[in-house]
Every structure is written in C-alpha cells, then in structure tokens.
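User: Can you recover a sequence for this backbone? Please restate the input before giving your answer.

Assistant: Of course. Working from this structure:
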C-alpha cells in the first residue's frame, strides 16, 4: 500500500521537472534574485488572471497582510475585525502593529466569517475588516463591503487559501481578493498556488494604495 500525502510536492515537481529546472536555471544565470524579470512577468500574468490593476509581490503572506495594514495608515489602538478560524498570521500582524484584533464568529458550514455578526462588533475604533476566504470558498463579500462602506471601514481580504475562487457580485463573477481595498495571498508550498520556498503578494485596484505598498515593500 502506497502512502498518499495530503500535499505531495515531490510528485507535482516530477510531472513538470524539466520546465521547473529550466526556469530556476534562468534565474540563477541572470542573478536577478529579488523582484527580477521572472517575478515581474509572474505579477503581470497574475494581475491579468485576477483582472486587477496591481499585483505587488512580497516575501510571504504574513508580510502581505502587514504591508496592507501599514499602507492603510492605521494607528495603534485601532480595531480590526477578523475571523478566529484562520492561521495565526491574520491576527498576528494586527497585534504586531499595535492594533486590536476583534474576532467575529464563523459560519459552521463554510468556516468563513459570519457577516450577520459584523455590525455588532463595530464601534468608533473599528477601522478595518479582514475576511478570510477558506478552502476555495469566498466570504459573502457584498454584505461585508456594504457594511464597511456604511461605517467608512477598510477591507483587506485574506485570500491565501482561495486563489482562483470567484464571487458573484453585481451581476458578474469577480475573483476573490480583488473586491476589498487590498487582497493578500501566500505562495507557501502547500497553498493552491505555490512556490519553491516562500512568497506572497498584495492585490488592489487603487493606484495610490499600490504605490504605498510598493514603497513599504522596498523599504
């Protein structure tokens, strides 16, 4: 009996080994290791796939979330609503920036944030909502965005577990991660869109926010 792994990275590699080896060799020969032409090409292709104006690559998904919060200009003591059913990074970056994480419960069938409980958690200190799309399922973004606009609150989508998912909004299908002010993703090897090592990205249609995010990424 052969042991079947939940994430079999070795078999995935073997199926496209020649293509991968050639791509890695190209990067090594060019010595463009940081945001080089291959990364720029990938960012452009991902922006086209997501139909979003800007894709900003970064080191990992945790950094993507932190950079998004920094670009929004939140101040210590501001409150950020998110889901308790997520990887620690979602709440971790909130606390690292001196912000206060506020948890809203999830739907028992999708494990996504329960939008019907959002307004009860909002007060004058609430500045941002971070819905987490899980297992390829988008949160109910229309309700979340409507509530956010009503209260002048920003929205950052944690899209690390749902790259490629679509949400039906205003008569059209839109990729998750492109609906809020920012979308953030991780390319950790076990994600549904992964890399060899670690990496992440931010998505936005706001050119001013994109420029702020790029500046933070580049220090």
């Amino acid at each position: 009996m052969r042991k079947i792994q939940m994430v079999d990275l070795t078999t995935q590699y073997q199926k496209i080994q020649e293509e991968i080896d050639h791509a890695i060799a190209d990067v090594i020969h060019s010595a463009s290791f940081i945001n080089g032409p291959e990364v720029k090409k990938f960012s452009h292709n991902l922006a086209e796939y997501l139909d979003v104006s800007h894709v900003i690559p970064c080191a990992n998904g945790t950094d993507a979330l932190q950079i998004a919060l920094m670009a929004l200009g939140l101040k210590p003591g501001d409150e950020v609503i998110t889901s308790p059913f997520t990887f620690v990074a979602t709440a971790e970056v909130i606390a690292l920036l001196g912000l206060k994480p506020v948890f809203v419960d999830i739907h028992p069938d999708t494990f996504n944030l329960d939008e019907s409980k959002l307004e009860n958690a909002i007060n004058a200190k609430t500045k941002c909502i971070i819905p987490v799309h899980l297992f390829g399922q988008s949160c109910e973004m229309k309700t979340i965005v409507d509530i956010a606009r009503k209260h002048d609150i920003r929205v950052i989508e944690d899209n690390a577990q749902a790259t490629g998912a679509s949400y039906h909004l205003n008569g059209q299908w839109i990729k998750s991660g492109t609906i809020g002010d920012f979308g953030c993703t991780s390319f950790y090897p076990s994600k549904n869109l992964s890399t060899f090592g670690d990496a992440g990205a931010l998505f936005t249609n706001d050119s001013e926010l994109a420029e702020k995010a790029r500046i933070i990424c580049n220090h």
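That completes the design. The mean pLDDT is 94.
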